[in-house]
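Page 42, continued from yesterday. The earlier attempt failed because a stray header line got pasted into the input along with the sequence. Redoing it now with the clean sequence only.
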Amino acid sequence: MDTFRIICAVYLLIAGVGNQVIDYRHRKRNAYEPGCAWQYYSKLAREGSREGKFMMWSGYIGIWFIIAIIATGCYQLARH
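This time it went through. Structure tokens are written below.
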């Protein structure tokens, strides 16, 4: 369980830094309205942009990791 948490933390750290760098460049150009980032990167991903695909996939994987961490936490609480 601890290994899984470490893997999730490392992934979230690496993907988080990558997401912030990409998002900073796009916000600096005012590429999208505030609050519309998910829609903007989804459109970029559909158009074939590597940055858009990275943002979307890292977001989806991050969401699944968070759900998995919550599930393992609930399992550990129920076990004790």
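Notes: The chain has a mean pLDDT of 90.
Reminder to self: strip header lines before submitting.
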